[in-house]
Amino acid sequence: NTLYLEAKLGWTGLLIEPNKQAYEGLRQNNRKASSLNACLSPTSSPTKVVFDAADVVGSIKRNTSENDKKGWVPAAKRSQYELQCYPLYDILVAASLTSIDLWSLDIEGFEEVVLDTVPWDKVDINSILIEVEHSDRKSIIAKLQAQGYRIHKEFGKQDVFLVKD
User: Fold this and answer.
1) Model pTM?
2) Could you tell me the mean pLDDT of each successive run of 10 residues in the chain, 165 residues long?
3) Per-residue burial over 135-155, b = 16 or more CB atoms within 10 Å of its CB, e = otherwise
């Protein structure tokens, strides 16, 4: 989501990529941004999860009885493994990041629970591009509006771009 901004506009940042194959790919692209092969924690503490690496639609596995909606992904691009997750704030502190211009959050249905872990009084995030296709769109927007964000642009039913007032 941010390669263009980095390559064409000189932006830097922090890439958090849980998918091992995708992480290796971004590392081979000689990205200027720092990177971390981990995931954002769905809780306010570090936790280990089972990650379902399903190409570009990989996500934390919710439970063992959920229906597999990613069966279309070829077996060569599928695997499941234990993965360490960290709260966003912990990662920002460790990286000495005090301000974020753009947070692109696309984690296949875990966006809302990750937003719930953010200590909004301790972070300075100017804009957020968030996928809402697999989450409760209205609830996510309401939570972000309660933190002083307003919708700048919507991209169909999939993504919403919000900016801080």
Assistant:
1) 0.86
2) 85 89 85 90 93 71 60 70 94 93 89 96 95 92 97 93 93
3) bebeebbebbeebebeeeeee
